[in-house]
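Minutes, project huddle
Topic: does the predicted pose make sense with pyridoxal-5'-phosphate bound?
PN asked that the exact inputs be recorded in the minutes so nobody has to dig through chat later. Recorded below.
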Amino acid sequence: TSVISDRINAMQESQTIAMAKMARELAAQGVDVISLSFGEPDFQTPQYIKDAAKKALDDGYTFYTPVPGYPDLRQAICDKLQRENNLAYKPENIVVSTGAKQSLANAVMSLVNPGDEVIVFSPYWVSYEEMVRLAEGKTVTLVGSLENGFKATAQQLEEAITPRTKLVMYSSPCNPTGAVFSREELAAVVEVLMRHSQIYVLADEIYEYINFEGQHVSMAQFDEIKDRVITVNGFSKGYAMTGWRVGYLAANKEIACACEKIQSQITSGTCSIAQRAALAALQGGRTSADEMVEAYRRRRDMVLELVKDIPGFRTPKPSGAFYIFPDVSGYFGKTTPEGKTINSAYDLALYMLHDGHVAAVDGGAFGAPNCLRFSTAAADEKLREAFIRIKNSLAKLV
Ligand code: PLP
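Predicted holo structure (tokens), as shared on screen:
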């Protein structure tokens, strides 16, 4: 028997982190590894945000912060939601947390009872399933088809709903697929949910700014369901602030209070300096993000060109985020030069790491075991080199 609780023993280690660890170990042995496994902007945080953090220290922001965030930051988040998303919220609806990850976890813990079903649009971000497991809920996945750009449909949702369904979770733009839900697609989802008043929606909009096509649509913009939607966003992706750990959610007051309660017992308010920096980030608008998005778009286009030359990669064009997510099942059953059979995307990821020295993540971690996820948040030359190596390694499979 283990000294560790059943709760934690039942939990999976994050696959993205496991792959990055393997890549780092190879690199430590002197191997020139190109890691495309991490979902992290390769840009520095913009200077004006760094300056605000330095000033916060000099101004004495070194004390405990209010649990749901500084009042002026919560107001600035309301202003952002109004200005950019046409969403009216008051500061009492906003809870600032230690990354969007904590916002998501707070919301799941606040809403899910043991045995409740949580419908997750799949492919999904790795942590959703583990958060639901921690809350003793049951994940029900809706698998989006390759033909539909990996987007689950309202009809699939309708079929998956049971009296135990409590919550629906999705990200748009989506990690890992880069899919963006259109207004029409979300409207169809809302129409289904209007017939089931017990169901809430957790809308993860952390990649909002990294959108190459079309407009970002928030589920909460549909007035008839707004009260049942929890919108999560943050600073990690759009402002290149992954290490600062600031995210937030907007929800009805009852849910926001529950999130504040759990946060008050587990972490307290997030870092004072990071919150002052986040306030400055919002006051600077989205200009810095727009510059980064141009680079992400250029890289997406470049990588899509490069993968056209790789047989057996079926890659829908991502509309946002910074990943490509090819279906690689065409390689299953092939044999490596060492005589090993490739039986899964995980086997293929290991082969590519050891033969081509390129790290990707197995889609199984995202509910899509036929796929691999490659981050395109890397320098152009690195991306070019990586996909040449991949092509050469794959060509050796028979
Ligand atoms: N949601 C999605 C879909 C993500 O990809 C990530 C980060 O990888 C997060 C949430 C968490 O972001 P944060 O750094 O704000 O915790």
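Observations noted during the meeting:
- The two ends are 44 Å apart (CA to CA).
- Residues 39, 99-101, 125, 171, 175, 204, 206, 234, 236, 242, 247 surround pyridoxal-5'-phosphate (CB under 6 Å).
No decisions taken; revisit at the next huddle.
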